[in-house]
């Protein structure tokens, strides 16, 4: 049996509304494109799905045979996203992304439950400003 772990992350662009309000909606759209391209480039060799969810949120679903790999991949992904920059006129700033994630065994795979826990982690991470990624092990919930 080919057992794989499933990791689901919810990402939220911090300060997205202020980008739109300060620089306009075309710049806000460019910010989303920068994030989407960064996600696609970073995850291109992985068994991963990238989904835009809502205005400035993305959902990432990753499958891999090693749970530790998925955990490290989420941590590395967040670190990589923080290297992406937004350039507007003479200003340049780093993209700010909050991320919550949950990992579970594919045997017990339930998207709704994974999403709910990853979403809870996202909001806890946002409340703990500066926390890079909040990760929850969902195996205990099944």
Structure description:
The chain has 142 residues and is of the alpha+beta class. It has helices at residues 16-23, 25-43, 67-81, 111-127, and strands spanning 5-13, 48-53, 57-64, 85-88, 91-94, 97-105, 133-137. It has a five-stranded mixed sheet. Helix 1 packs across helix 2. The two termini are 20 Å apart. The model has no long low-confidence stretch (mean pLDDT 83).
How many β strands by DSSP? 7
Can you tell me the overall shape? elongated
**Strand percentage, roughly?**
25-35%
Radius of gyration (CA) equals 15 Å
What structural category characterises the helix and strand content? alpha+beta
Largest sheet: 5 strands, mixed
In short:
The chain has helices spanning 16-23, 25-43, 67-81, 111-127, and strands spanning 5-13, 48-53, 57-64, 85-88, 91-94, 97-105, 133-137. With 142 residues, the chain is an alpha+beta fold.
Key descriptive features of the protein:
142 residues, alpha+beta, five-stranded mixed β-sheet, two-stranded antiparallel sheet, 42% helix, elongated
Set out the fold topology.
Blueprint: E1 5-13, H1 16-23, H2 25-43, E2 48-53, E3 57-64, H3 67-81, E4 85-88, E5 91-94, E6 97-105, H4 111-127, E7 133-137
Parallel strand pairs: 6-7
Antiparallel strand pairs: 1-3, 1-6, 2-3, 4-5
